[in-house]
């Protein structure tokens, strides 16, 4: 008894028909008695059929339709913002955005302090270039200036702690005697 059988023209026609319908191979490979899923994939490759994961169109994905719905209002959003609005994981949202970039969307800005994340909008267009990274000292200076304007009491408290620590280390700190202060 042979370990394998030749593929006939009828088998090839049936394989092409099943291959095009998009149903997973594990559901219909039993229609080919004596053949494994692996042998079906090998024959499909030999016939030049497209890969299975590419038979489904990108625009038919539910996630992509949700992304389109969220971005249809014209507001630029990052992958994290889109994931919050759609309920899908941000990694999957990023994957879908990369798949449809630059045909269906473009970058209009960047958000983030250290690691810049793109802000996306629907439609092809010219991308905003990614800004140059900020050095640690420049980021610290920017944060200090922001805090100085928003919460000056925080900076004052921090400076007081630094002055106290400096005086303790330099030996110039004069502590009041609690008994003398009481009189």
Provide structural commentary.
There is one protein chain. The chain is built from nine helices and two strands. The chain is mainly alpha-helical and about 180 residues long. The protein folds into three domains: about 10-55; about 60-120, Winged helix-like DNA-binding domain superfamily/Winged helix DNA-binding domain (Arc Repressor Mutant, subunit A); about 135-175, no CATH class. Strands 1-2 form a two-stranded antiparallel ribbon. A hairpin with a 5-residue loop joins strand 1 and strand 2 (about 115-120). The radius of gyration is 32 Å and the shape is elongated.
> What percentage of residues falls in helices of 4 or more residues?
40-55%
Kindly report how far apart the N and C termini lie.
113 Å
The major pleated sheet works out as: 2 strands, antiparallel
Per DSSP, what share of the residues sits in E-state strands of 2 or more residues?
Answer: 5-15%
**Element order: H for helix, E for strand:** HHHHHHEEHHH
Please state the CA-atom Rg, rounded to the nearest Å: 32 Å
In terms of structural class, how would the helical and strand content be classed?
mainly alpha
Give me the number of helical elements.
9
Mean pLDDT: 84
CATH topology descriptor of the largest domain: Arc Repressor Mutant, subunit A
Q: CATH homologous superfamily of the largest domain - what is it?
A: Winged helix-like DNA-binding domain superfamily/Winged helix DNA-binding domain
Low-confidence stretches: none
**Neighbour order of strands in the largest sheet:** 1-2
Counting DSSP E segments of at least 2 residues, the number of strands comes to: 2
Number of discrete domains = 3
Q: From the coordinates shown, what is the CATH architecture of the largest domain?
A: Orthogonal Bundle
Overall geometric form: elongated
Output the CATH class name of the largest domain: Mainly Alpha
